[in-house]
Design a protein that fits this description.
alpha/beta, nine-stranded parallel β-sheet, 12 helices, globular
Length: 256
């Protein structure tokens, strides 16, 4: 048995395709629109869909995703409602789902309980920006028992020794943030990114996906030339019409 994300990236590599990974804040702006947007993304060709778990101290998120998280939290969001919504999505799409959250919600919910709910809901992986490998043992072990992949983050400033550690502890894909900052749309592509990807490739053949700052089909195409997949968040969270989401992602898909 292998992780579902590993299977997906092996398939994409054989096909010569790059992964399209859209991000949506769970239950934002409503449970109905959230589910419709995820289904629209799957219909448009998403390979993996990232679901952000709203949290009151989202240190890796910029203004757009912070606002969506705050809105969801003040309009009835609970972790239980999120898992219920994800289970309902499973009847509509089989596209792999990855939850982006922070370590406190996982610990507060209970590590074993959280991972079991992920497995029951069909979640394939987790991204936890504030979890460092040195403190990830319990979560990594419990996730592995439930076949949930852990996807650690590398920043442009991450030193080589740490990239090696992160690569060894990642069981899904390496999430390379394009800037040493928070999520949000940006105009250009940093000139240092090719060298960062090269450093990661020197120590691992695990998939590398780039996120933070990608908001147009042209930017997605340029990033995809460097890596195995692109993650689009803030630009999509601003689109609260599922039809707009579908049209936008179809244009991005054509560029990958």
């Amino acid at each position: 048995m292998s992780y579902e994300l590993e299977t997906i990236f092996n398939k994409l590599r054989k096909q010569g395709r790059k992964a399209l990974i859209p991000y949506f804040t769970a239950l934002y702006p409503s449970a109905k629109v959230f589910k419709q947007s995820v289904i629209a993304a799957a219909d448009a060709g998403a390979d993996i869909i990232e679901i952000g778990l709203p949290f009151s101290d989202p240190l890796a998120d910029g203004p757009v995703i912070q606002h969506s998280s705050h809105y969801a939290l003040t309009h009835g969001f609970t972790v239980e409602r999120m898992f219920k919504s994800i289970k309902q999505l499973r009847d509509k799409t089989k596209t792999p789902l990855v939850i982006m959250t922070y370590i406190n919600p996982v610990l507060s919910y209970g590590v074993v309980r959280f991972m079991r709910e992920c497995r029951k809901s069909g979640v394939s992986g987790l991204i936890i920006p504030d979890m460092i490998p040195e403190e990830g043992g319990l979560i990594e072990k419990t996730a592995a028992l439930n076949w949930i992949a852990i996807n650690y983050i590398v920043a442009p400033t991450t030193p080589m020794t740490r990239i090696r550690l992160i690569a060894a502890r990642t069981s899904g894909f390496i999430y390379l943030v394009s800037v040493a900052g928070v999520t949000g749309e940006r105009r250009g592509i940093p000139s240092y990114l090719p060298s960062v990807v090269k450093r990661i490739r020197q120590v691992t053949d695990k998939p590398v996906c780039i996120g933070f700052g990608i908001s147009t089909p042209a930017q997605a195409r340029a990033m995809a030339r460097l890596c195995d997949g692109v993650i689009i968040g803030s630009a999509l969270v601003k689109m609260t019409n599922p039809s707009t989401v579908r049209r936008f992602l179809k244009k991005v898909r054509q560029q990958l």
